[in-house]
Amino acid sequence: MREVGIGIAGFGVVGGGVLSILRKHAGDIEARLGARIVVRRIALRDPEKGRPLDVDRALLTTRLEDLVEDPEIAVVVELIGGVDQAFDLVRSALERGKHVVTANKALLAARGEEIFRLAREKGVDVYYEAAVCGGVPIIRTLREALASDRINALHGIVNGTTNFILTAMAERGEPIETALAEAQRLGYAEADPTLDVSGGDAAQKLCVLAQLAFGARIRPQDVLTEGIMSLKPEDFRWAREFGYALKLLAVARRTSSNGGPDQLEARVHPAFIPAGSLLAGVRGAMNAVVLQSEALGPSMLYGQGAGAMPTGSAVVSDIIDLTRNILAGSPGRVPLPPAKPLVGLRPHDEVRCAYYLHFSVQDAPGVLARIASQLAAHKISIAAVQQREQNDQGKPVPLVIVTHVAREADLRAAIALIDRDPTTLAPTRLIRIESA
Amino acid sequence: MREVGIGIAGFGVVGGGVLSILRKHAGDIEARLGARIVVRRIALRDPEKGRPLDVDRALLTTRLEDLVEDPEIAVVVELIGGVDQAFDLVRSALERGKHVVTANKALLAARGEEIFRLAREKGVDVYYEAAVCGGVPIIRTLREALASDRINALHGIVNGTTNFILTAMAERGEPIETALAEAQRLGYAEADPTLDVSGGDAAQKLCVLAQLAFGARIRPQDVLTEGIMSLKPEDFRWAREFGYALKLLAVARRTSSNGGPDQLEARVHPAFIPAGSLLAGVRGAMNAVVLQSEALGPSMLYGQGAGAMPTGSAVVSDIIDLTRNILAGSPGRVPLPPAKPLVGLRPHDEVRCAYYLHFSVQDAPGVLARIASQLAAHKISIAAVQQREQNDQGKPVPLVIVTHVAREADLRAAIALIDRDPTTLAPTRLIRIESA
Predict the structure, then answer these.
(1) So what's the ipTM on this one?
(2) What pairs with residue B323 in β-bridges?
(3) Cβ-count burial of A57 within 10 angstroms (0-12 exposed, 13-18 middle, 19+ buried)?
(4) Which residues does the UniProt record annotate as the domain ACT (chains A, B) (predicted)?
(5) Which pLDDT does position A22 carry in this prediction?
(6) Is B272 left (phi over 0), alpha (psi -120 to 50) or beta?
(7) Which domains are present in chain A?
(8) Does the beta-carbon distance from B129 to A145 stay under 8 Å?
């Protein structure tokens, strides 16, 4: 039976999952492939540290070079994370004509362009299903299933940590500190949760998805990114009142600008979405991506976005796919993201959304009239207004306005003026409204 | 630029969708493939009939043989439907070494085994993404993305017509005749809706899915199949009362039987599912499939299951994939369903479910006690009971019992005895309860 040798860099949670799936399903995989996948080396930082499962110590090495230099290794599996060291490993693997599987969204978001260019030059493959939404086959669907279609919008819950926190806040009315602490206790959030709660992780994933779905070339810093730490329990109550759920969404949307070339909105932020929508039903640490495409219309993929086995299964599916290409002599079968960007980024000022606006104002005559006229002066039209009764004299009154679709820059300008008025007692908070 | 010739058999709704996608996205597809897909012949029954779009009349033929005999056609796209003629076409195409794309679930359910065997012998590919759930990439996901995983259960809403009808009944309290008539008026149901409302269409799709997901070899007549025509508006009210939604589900579930080999439950029937589940949120004519697999856990794919463009996009994605295989010289890259069945069918008597039972009984002392003791005698344990108040003396009282998980044969035996009793005024109706 033919053998295809692989080298695995990184032996943490995902590495353990990959090895255990390769072992457990070895028979099935061999039967399907007509070939054997053989792990030739595993590179890890500290060979003395406890491992998630037993392996032959002769396979272990602390030198990443050992993977790249081994002529029997055809596929390098990068699971070390981070950008710089991972990039060096991937680059030297590609330069030696090895195929690469990576689960590293940060790497692809920051240096995907160089990696894909090198892979094209060398005629080798880069597979990265596990980089976004763990085991959910979104990368494969974008690369292959929708090759015949044109995608116009993508809305995703792509960060399980924040969705877990927001689900707890929505269902139990908890403040974010409590929900975050619980997520940390249960292992859904890191000790330092910044990358997740800031939206940064979701922005990296959005960049990777937008490369494939739209041929866009954007970096995380180009994405309009707002995290979840400023959300309050009352935002969830208001969401319910207006018929919405509140989720952290990654959004990419193709827009046309007065007959000019298409542009792409790229943003990550908390969003009100219709309570009856499928995305609203995505609870806990689960992930989902909704695509709007021309021929297929709306479609959704849903599943576990993290964890040893879900992510490991995506990595192993990539290894199997690469092995098929190697056996068939057909690397480069499925194209990488396009070499030239097909669509530019839409300036954030030009984003158009409906908004939920939460004002903290004095309970005084004329306050609503002032706010309404400021909004009108900026061409922002009001869809709904609610003001809660307030018994404590002198305390700010919460006033909530839902707008129709407006231009982000106009809205920001109106809010800036409103917030400068002495009857506004705290900065106005906004949450965008998405129909997907 | 290299060209790959295709022949399309059948020029109805889907054929029109395929041609219009191939035209509209020709530039994109050529850029991605580095090759041109050229439609060389279109076979149709009546060349004088109005067509969904204009084509060069020189391409048209009424002879299916013209597609098979044309040496410039590498891929035959079968869109004529039905079993016998379609089988003859597919067989002669495969025998001549041509690849096949088909959207024909009936063909694959009835004669998939022969087709796949011939394709294996000839070293050519059969692609059939459009045969199940239109544009939803469930076939591709089962063939490729989950190649590393082991699927334990599949629950699908795979028939848009019945889901449209059940959604109308649930949301508007309509009797089934009204909902069906509306579905016919809107084009969601055929003039003769039997294949859809009987569950027969869903059973065909389940067979195709079970081949891939479990390596099962089952035919539609092997599937425990119940349609939707006996459902009443009150079933939806009871569903809501117990926290469920009511859907027509296709279910395949791997079960182990006392250390013996795994068996597969295969069934299509109306089912109560938790109201908060994602499948419960699948409305109208949409389709969705939930998979439970070992590594990935639960996952779902959702989208439009029918229509010219969704189905057409799946066919075109298959054509693109086949073209990639042809260009790379790698046919047979992704394996067909296994040649030997990997799992046998579980006898329907051994199916285990929880049940909703709807009794029509006399309002007389001892009736509940009698039913409860019949159930107990058959090892069926009761989870909930509700009896509605009844003002009209003499009319049957609706009594509803929700059971814990029980064996189908035990339940049937108990019901048969209960229905024989003179205090039972109408046959007891049952709806299975699924947790997915």
Answers:
(1) 0.90
(2) none
(3) exposed
(4) 356-432
(5) 94
(6) beta
(7) 2-135+308-328 (3.40.50.720), 140-304 (3.30.360.10), 348-433 (3.30.70.260)
(8) yes
